[in-house]
Amino acid sequence: MIWHPLLLAVLILDSLSFFMVSAAAVTALRIVISWSPQSAEQHQIRLEVKAEVASVQVRGAGLLFVASSVLFIVAVSNVLPALVPGAMCGTGVLQACRGLGQRALAFRLLTIVIVYVWCSVDRLNRAHPDAPLTTVSGRGCLLLVPVLFLAYLDSVRAVMALDTHQPVDCCAVVYDQVRSLAPATGNLLSLPDAWMVAVFLAAGILLIVLGLRVWRAKSPPSSPLSFALTGLSLLWVPLAYLALIRVLAAYHYQVLYHHCPWCLFLADHHLVGYPLFGALAVTCLEGCVLWVGLKVARDFPQVAIPAYNRSQLAGLSIASATLLFVVLAAGPAMLWRLRFGVWM
């Protein structure tokens, strides 16, 4: 266990986020049980005021949690490796956390997805004076509480379990992970590297085209096109990750067979991991928002226009994030080819 100031900042921000969401959840429960928008009774008026306060609390908690998650990644990738014997990057730090670091990151990602979608629904709700999505927003707040609690709990447990005395072996962990992803016949992972990159690029180009079509649609985007964009964006993210660590990361490291995503966050590699994985996160988040926007527009005609507008903006965001990832991930490979005339 180590009480580094950066880890303390992460836990303090997480604590504030959880307390703010818990306070908002009390109001959310009352909204789900007794929300009556047509009523003019004093109880309903007070509940409407508390709903506004809860909205601010959840949005503030979301900002704090995103900030703490970024600090957590910075700590794991750039600060703690110097304090863990044998660790050269975040892989060794996570190994020293005895597996709890991966759980914390997974729950953090899930929490951010829920918060991001909730904020989009809340913005649509505030776009109409009748606030027709208030009960939906309340249910989303109640869903957020246990997921945020698990992310917070696993972060605390990971910090408590962090061993700064026992040496770790980053490379052994990376090679074990690669062997665990050993291709099985008939599986996507069985594709040769060249084919995997080709599928990744083709799907990325298609994703950009579909995103721009949704964005430039003069009428509300059609459901088949938008659902195809949502599905492709969620499928492309893991494919892009695999193509990056199996093939394209080598051109950033300029060494073969180093399948480590955490080294991309190091200053030696220009911190390229932050925009790369940030672009993947935006693609995933906006894909979810696109689907939610279409469902809201269909079920709540009062906010159909802002919901369609938000879906179109999601299309542009997906196209932009995909283009950024493709350029940053595949750019060094193209430069290597132009410089040496061969692929690595």
> Can you summarize the main beta sheet?
none
Fraction of residues in helix: over 70%
What general form does the structure show? flat
Number of DSSP helices?
A: 10
Uncertain spans: 178-186
Beta-strand residue percentage = under 5%
Radius of gyration, taken over Cα atoms and rounded to an integer in Å? 22 Å
Total separate domains: 2
Q: Average pLDDT, to the nearest integer?
A: 88
- How far apart are the first and last residues' alpha carbons, in Å? 41 Å
- Helices and strands, in order, run as HHHHHHHHHH
Global structural class? mainly alpha
Structure write-up:
The chain has 344 residues and is an all-alpha fold. The protein folds into two domains: 1-168; 169-344. 75% of the residues lie in helices and 0% in strands. It has helices at 5-34, 42-79, 90-96, 100-125, 134-161, 170-180, 193-216, 223-253, 273-299, 304-340. The radius of gyration is 22 Å and the shape is flat.
